[in-house]
Amino acid sequence: MNGRQDPPAASSAGGTSTGPAETPRTRKRLGPSPAVAIAFLLPAALLLGIWVVYPIVYSFVRSLFGAQNFSEFVGLGNYISIFTDPGTLTTIRNNLIWVIVAPIIVTTLGLIFAVLTERIKWATAFKLIVFMPMAVSLMAAGVIFRLVYEQSPDKGLANAVLTTVADTFSSSQGYPAARPREGDQSPVAAQDGGVVTKQPVQAGQPVLIPIVGVKPEVMPSNAQTAKTPAGEGLSGVVWFDFTQGGGGRNGAVDGAEKGLPGMTVEAVQNGQVAATATTAEDGSFRFEGLAPGSYTVRLPKSNFEASYGGLQWLGPTLITPAIIGAFVWVWAGFAMVLLAAGLAAIPRDALEAARIDGATEWQVFRRITVPLLSPVLLVVFVTMIINTLKVFDLVFIIAPASVQPQANVVALEMWRVSFGGGNNQGLGSALAIFLLVLVLPFMIMNIRRFRRGES
Fold it and tell me: Region Disordered: start and end of each range (predicted)?
C-alpha cells in the first residue's frame, strides 16, 4: 500500500474507451483506391495525349521547319511570314472583324429574344424556332445561305425580298438597252438618256412613242397587245415597234405588237413636269387633270435603266458581313437558351421591388436584369469569341472561289496553306499554333468562370 492508485477501468456499460489514437493508416479510406482511379483515368489520359497533346507538340515542332519536310530548319521564319504576307494579314483583319462584330450581335440578339419570350404566350414555340438552326450543321447552314445570297432574285431569298420592297415603292419598269426608233419619220428622239416627242402635243392628239431594242428577257409577262387610247385629254401609247417574223409598218401600231407596261411618262411644259402617268399593260397612258395647252411628252431616263436587282451579297464588299449573318442565324438560339436560363434564376423580388419604387421597364432591364445576368452574358460572349476564331465551314461553303481571298480567316487559311493546294506544312503548322494562342486565353477565362460558379 504505497498510496498509488491505478486509473479506474472504463466501464463497458456507459464509459468511453480511450484506446489508441487513430492514424492515417488505420483510417478507413472512402472511395476507390488510387490504383483503381489511375486505371480508370489512364485510357482517357492516353486518348487526350494522342488527340490533343501530341498534335500540339508536333505542330509546334513542324512550324520551325520548311514547307515539305524536316530537312530545312527555318526557326521563326514561318511566324514572321504570318505578319508580313499581305494575304495572311487580310485573314487576320477578317478575324478581327469577326471577333468584334459577331459575338456582340449574337449576345445582343440572344438577350433580346430571352427577355421578350417572357412576355409572349407562345414562348416555347418561339424558342423552338429560334433554336432550330442549332440542329443544322455549319456545312448545311453554309449551303442554305449560299442559296439565300444568290444574285438572281428568282433564286436568292435575300435579293427577292429587297427587289419586292423596291418594286413596291417604284412603279417604273426598267427596259435596259431599249431606245427610240431612229429616223426622220419617228415622232420621238433620244435626249439625256430618255425619250421626248419632237413636236409639242395637245389634248385630243394620241401620242405615239415607238420603242425598239427591248430584250425578250425584260419584256413583262403581263404585256398585252398595244392599243391607242381614245377619248378626251392628253393620252398616248408606248409600244415595242417590232413585229416578230417581219412585216408591219414603222411608227405605227400593228396588231401583233405589244405595249410596254410600267413606264413612267411625263408631261412637260416650260421645262417643268406638269403631270405624270404610268403605262398600262397595253402600253397606253392618259394624263388626268391636265390644263389645256401644248406639252412635250417625255419618258425619263429611269425607264431605260435596269430594274433594281438587289445587292451583290457574294461580292468582295459584302461577303464577310453576309457570312457573319449566317453565323448569327445559327448561334442566336444558343445564346437565347443560355440567357433565358439565367433570367429564370434571377430573384423576382428584386425586379418587383424596383417596379414598386417607380422604375421603368428600361431602368429595370438596364440596372437590375443586365447586372444580374452579367456572368451568363460573359460566358456566352466568350464562347462566341472562341467559335468565331475557329470558324471555317461557313466561309469555305458560302464564299465563291473568286472572293475567298477577301473573306478568308485564319482557320481556312491554315487548311488552304497545308492541304488546299499550298503544300506548305511549315506555314500551316505555324498558323495552327497562332490560332491556338488566340483561342487559349478565352478558354482559360471560361474555365475560371465555370470554377467560380461551382464554388
Answer: 1-29
